[in-house]
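Running low. Any example?
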Amino acid sequence: MCARSLRELARRTLRSRGVIIRLPDNINREENLAIRLSDLSPSLYFGIEYKPHNLESIVVTNIGQGGGVIGLEEPDESEVWVPIDLQTGLDLLSTEIIALASAGYPACAGCGGPDAETPWDEIEIRKSYF
């Protein structure tokens, strides 16, 4: 499963200054995610903008942080790749973002998950998928 990649993308999103999520029109999105995050942690405020596109992927662009791609087509190695069904991937990403924010991430030490303190190695993670 790609739980580590989802968690890494969620951490990057929470460390960013804003997020643009490009996705196909047929994917249901969490319209109130930014509001839910600010309710959990008033100091954690950033915008989330959803933009439609006609690719078979979800592209997460984090301002000030690396981004990622949810979908079955492998992107270049500079992005976190979450090889999963689009709707499931977006739902799980939203859930992971809320869980990390509820735990106090990024303002707390040790609450970013079991692999938050180790350097991210996208190439090695991708090797573990196959």
